[in-house]
Amino acid sequence: MPIIKLMSRDRRIFEIDSEILKCSSTILEMLKDFGVDAVLSLPNVNSVVVEKIIEWATHHRNDPLSDDDGNESENDVSSWDADFLKIDNSTLLDITVAATYLEIKGLLKLIKKPFSDLIANKSIPEMRELFEPKNEVTITSGKGEQARKKSRRS
Fold this sequence. Notes:
Keywords: Ubl conjugation pathway. This protein has helices at residues 25-34, 47-59, 79-84, 89-102, 105-119, 124-131, 142-153, and strands at residues 3-7, 13-17, 39-41. By secondary structure, it is mostly helical. It has a single domain, classed as Potassium Channel Kv1.1, Chain A (2-Layer Sandwich), CATH 3.30.710.
């Protein structure tokens, strides 16, 4: 299979066999639109998360692709997947966002339970703290707005 190039938000390039990422509907559409020779930009995904997704997709490359939502029990998680899920909350959130953006159904099924556990019984302030960007600037003046816009561009 052809080797494709992915560029993460932090501009790191990953070269990977396209067969490994057949689990991503978004990547497949990008390949149709831009071809296998293009560098496929993933502006919403940092390099750490791209590595984790490649790790997961490589391990699951021979799994059958499924269009259904399945009702597998949470107990059906393999030991490899259980080890894969031993990550901090921030990485779990980032992988959830990336798997949603990339439309990787198998990965979304895997992280559904830990993600649900992460947000269960949280108050509104706790949810805000969990989901707000860490480098957000509080706006108190026109200068704060400029700093906030600059922070978003970086």
